Amino acid sequence: QVQLVESGGGLVQAGGSLRLSCAASGGTFSTYAMGWFRQAPGKERESVAHISRSGGSTFYANSVKGRFSISRDNAKNTVYLQMNSLKAEDTAVYFCAAKFSVTLSTTYNAYAYYGQGTQVTVSS
């Protein structure tokens, strides 16, 4: 069983930056592809960024491309989401997910484990 715990959320002004972390325990982190999703009140869940288990492949939603960066440190069992140039529309609960696979996926249901999420609020 894999446990995922996000941190790093908070309140930031538009144009600012935040770095989210997702710490994993209970499994072999380097065998899991990882992803970040977000959900805002009244909106559908959205794929944000994803990374393969080696870190060699990444994928970004068009809405965050060029502003967000996903990375991982397999020695620390942690995946990160660096968020720059934040906009009010980035306000959401962000949560990470893990799946036992070589390749990444943008599909929520493809993942086996999910964190509880961390709130990101961007004031305009």
In summary, what is this structure?
Helix content is 0%, strand content 51%. It is built from no helices and eleven strands.
Order of helices and strands: EEEEEEEEEEE
Tell me the radius of gyration: 13 Å
What portion of the residues fall into strands of 2 or more residues? Answer: over 45%
* C-alpha termini separation: 40 Å
How large is the count of helical segments?
0
Largest sheet geometry: 7 strands, mixed
Broad structural category: mainly beta
What is the 3D form? globular
Task: Give the helix proportion (percent range).
Answer: under 10%
Task: Tell me, rounded to a whole number, the average pLDDT.
Answer: 96
Q: Are there runs of 5+ residues with pLDDT below 50, and where?
A: none
Total strands = 11
Annotation keywords:
about 120 residues, single chain, mainly beta, seven-stranded mixed beta sheet, four-stranded antiparallel beta sheet
Note down, in words, how this protein is organized:
The chain is an all-beta fold and 124 residues long. 0% of the residues lie in helices and 51% in strands. The protein has no helices and 11 strands. The strands form 2 sheets. Strands 2, 4, 5, 6, 9, 10 and 11 form a 7-stranded mixed β-sheet that branches. Strand 5 and strand 6 form a beta hairpin. The chain is globular. 35% of the residues are buried.
